[in-house]
Structures are given as C-alpha cells and as structure tokens.
User: Which sequence fits this backbone?
C-alpha cells in the first residue's frame, strides 16, 4: 500500500469563534492510500486542543507507512498497530482509517454505509453552527442559515443571553442547542444554564472543562437541562465513566481515531443508556463523509464543517438544509471538485 498526503488550507466564510479560540483558516491534511490501482481518500484534522499539529500528524502518517501491510481489508489489525504507536495522534489515524474504508468500498463497489448494514434514510438532519460574534453579525448569520432547521449556537461568554436573544429574534421557532466549549465552571454553570433555558434549549454541550464527571452530573441535576459531553468524551475509554453523568456524548473522528473507534464509542454509549451525536471540526467534505456514513446509527449530527468553508476541495456529501446525502456511490462517495 502506498500512502501520500498534502496540506490543505481551508478558508472560512466567517472567522469562527468559540469560547477558547478564534480561526479564519484551518490547515488539514488530505491523505491518499493507493493499492492495486484503487485510491482511497481520508482527511486528518489536527486539533491543538488534543495535542495535535499539522507537523505531528504528518510525522505520525510518516510512521504509519510501515505499519500498513499489503491487505487493505485487514482494517482492524492495521488500525490496532497504528493506535499502539500513535495513540496521541488520532487525527492522523482517522485519516488512514477513512482512506482504508474508502478503498474497501471502492474495491467492492459499495458505499461505506452499506458495509455497516445501515439504512441511509435513518440519518438525522444536521445542525448548523453559529459561532460567537458581534450581535448584529450573529443576527445576519442566523438569517443566512434560514435553510437549516436546527442551530447549534456557541456560547461560554459573558454575554450568552444577548447571543441567544439575537438568535431567537431571527429564528423564534427553530430547535436550538448550545455549546459552551468548557466556558463555564461547575459553580456558575447551573445558574447560567437556567437563565438560558428561557430560550428553549434542546441540550447544552460541554458546560465545564473535562476531567470531573461527577461535577458534570451535579450541573445536570441542578440545571435541569440535558447535557452532552464533547471535550470529556474523546475516545472509547471515556464513555463508560460518563454513564449517568450526562445524557449523551459527542463523537468526533479526529478525537477518537476514525470510523472503527467511533463505532466502539457508539456501542459503548448505547450500553450505558447514552444518546449519541456525531460532530466535526472545520474540515472538508472528505472528513465530513467519514463521519456521515455512521449517521444512521446516532441521534443527532453536527456535520457542517464543510459548509463553513469557501474552498472545499471535494464534493459529494451534500448538506443543504442540514441533509447529508448518502448515495450509492462507492466508498465515501466524495470526489475532487472540478476547478
Ligand atoms: Mg462541542
């Protein structure tokens, strides 16, 4: 198997701000895995927050070349070797995992969702994210998002009520979720959430920093609004301890290491009575497609990263109105966009 990759600079339509950071561009790595005349694609989305940089992801990809072997169907064994060596570089492992699944799907001429026995009609509609911004910009972003029935609003600031009020002025009846990205503390979160509750929230994502599931449970009890863990729910070993502390978990492939590790997390979550969301970072249609093929297995999806950029190098996964298109195209179903 041959593995090659290149850096891709993704340009955002709007500077994207969350509680802890702000970005106008995002560097990801697109990966091609070639074997027997077939090319599978995948994407690594390194996240500084999880100790990953473009450089560390490239070094991990370089190290994984010698771990691939000569049979792309042996995905489990290949990924076990990669995770053993590069446990802290799961964004890079996810790119290889995605490329392997794309390759196998193309070889068998079936889409990845079919490999897992799924029904594409069972995929939920994706939310569309409204980043932190000036209130007039939040209003215009909300108006621009008219086609999306579900909004995920970034909070975790000292003006969260104004933000929600601005969104509700433009979108009085939409389903709204909020994501604090660890922006509150265990002491302040219950009161903050109670005050935001008047804006009819479906759930609150990651109100406080990770590392204290018992505090998360207390916030949930005091606030009386469903909670979803994101930064607290990184990889399979994080799932069981969250049982009884939150209502659901947000799985991202770049955190956990790809489709196979995401599947483990989904099954663990179900065993603990947790709901499941599939989320994303700022990424191209390749990374979104890797997650989208598991969408029929989960309750909520937040797969809009490719809709927030203006130079997506790939296409094929749709997303208009929050509806991703899982077609009969083989593999991940994405192709290079004609320039
Ligand atoms: Mg989140």
Assistant:
């Amino acid at each position: 198997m041959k593995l090659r990759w290149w850096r891709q600079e993704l340009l955002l339509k709007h500077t994207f701000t969350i509680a802890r950071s702000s970005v106008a561009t995002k560097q990801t790595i697109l990966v091609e895995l070639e074997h027997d005349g077939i090319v599978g694609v995948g994407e690594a989305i390194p996240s500084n927050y999880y100790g990953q940089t473009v450089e560390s992801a490239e070094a991990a990809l370089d190290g994984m070349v010698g771990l691939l072997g000569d049979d792309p169907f042996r995905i489990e064994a290949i990924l076990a070797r990669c995770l053993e060596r590069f446990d802290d570089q799961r964004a890079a492992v996810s790119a290889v995992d995605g490329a392997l699944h794309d390759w196998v799907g193309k070889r068998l001429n079936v889409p990845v969702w079919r490999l897992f026995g799924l029904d594409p009609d069972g995929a939920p509609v994706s939310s569309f994210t409204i980043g932190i911004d000036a209130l007039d910009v939040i209003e215009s972003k909300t108006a621009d998002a008219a086609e999306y029935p579900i909004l995920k609003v970034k909070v975790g600031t000292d003006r969260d009520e104004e933000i929600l009020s601005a969104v509700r002025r433009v979108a009085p009846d939409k389903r709204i979720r909020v994501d604090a990205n660890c922006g509150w503390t265990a002491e302040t979160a219950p009161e903050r959430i109670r005050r935001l509750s008047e804006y009819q929230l479906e759930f609150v994502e990651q109100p406080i920093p990770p590392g204290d599931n018992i505090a998360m449970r207390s916030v949930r009890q005091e606030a009386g609004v469903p909670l979803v863990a994101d930064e607290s729910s990184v990889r399979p070993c994080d799932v069981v301890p969250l049982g009884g502390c939150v209502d659901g978990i947000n799985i991202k492939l770049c955190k956990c290491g790809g489709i196979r590790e995401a599947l483990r997390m989904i099954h663990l979550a179900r065993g603990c009575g947790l709901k499941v969301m599939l989320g994303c970072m700022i990424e191209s249609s390749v990374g979104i497609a890797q997650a989208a093929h598991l969408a029929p297995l989960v309750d909520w999806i937040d797969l809009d990263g490719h809709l927030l950029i203006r130079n997506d190098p790939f296409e094929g996964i749709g997303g208009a109105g929050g509806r991703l298109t899982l077609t009969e195209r083989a593999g991940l179903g994405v192709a290079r966009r004609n320039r």
About this structure: The chain has two domains: 2-113, 118-336. The CA atoms of residues 46 and 54 lie 6 Å apart.
